[in-house]
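Allow me, if you will, to draw on your knowledge of protein folds for a short while. I am sending you one protein, given as its amino acid sequence and as whole-number tokens for its backbone shapes. Kindly check, if you would, that the fold set down in the tokens agrees with what the sequence suggests. The record follows directly beneath this note:
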Amino acid sequence: MRTPFSTVYFIEHIVPKTVRDSLSRYRNRRFPLMPSGFQIQPPRIVNSTAEAQACLLSGKEPALWREAVVDTPLNKWNLSYLTEVGGNTPVKILALEGMGNAAEHTLDKILSFREFVEHHLNSSYLRFGDFIDNTPALKADLPTDLLATISGKQSRVNLQFFLGASKAYTSLHSEMNCNIFIQVFGKKRWVIFPTKAMRDLQPVSARKFYFYSAFNALAAKPKPSSFNATIAWDITLEPGDILLMPPWLWHSVENLTTSCSIGYKFNRLGYAFRASPLLTALNLLARNPSYFSYIYQTLRTKKHPILST
């Protein structure tokens, strides 16, 4: 009898590293990388807060709301405005395992937003940042009523800021949070796979509270006529668009131009468990750092633990 993928991947997260490495090699032989390729299908389109909420509840596919926030104060955001308002705000270029490119000399370095824009924008990617939380004038520009309605008026929300030049990217990964993602300016491409595609993506057993894969989704070519191909979504966001991402969808992202975006993220354990019992359980068993450290950092800093590293 062949061992199911979920059993092997679960065991990898609770055994010593030497055993884990052997199991990972066995799993990758047993479950090849994208054996049947993938097919691109169009995203679900929504046009109201009720439809957007339903997408996050479903936990199965992303949804796109075109021009959802075009008539908001976010229209005035550009590099000059952001620098004028928040130029002295400190930002941190995070070094995150499995997440992609950044110039080595800037990793985990704290600098002013102005210094980042003037000297590092073309070589590094400011992502998962707390820039908005630390710049009240910018936070006031957000369409908070709309976001609160879509999210179901969550009491704890992580506002994450993304800014990078063309070709900046984040590698394929999966997270537990729901994400209401706003494209402020520029264009950004997302390649997204359903949670059930995990067995074809050869995820790394890193025992973190997020999961990642070495599969280069941004460069891979779909196989439209392939039998049993995995489904995927290839979505380009333009200014004013909102992308709705339920928990645990696998995604890789790249900037097609200089791009600024906001992730309005929140955790709902029930949503996450419905989307993937396996990944939710492994998230609770994380040891790098431990889940208890994850909770402590969140409560102590009132931020997502990525932002307090």
In short: The chain has a mean pLDDT of 89.
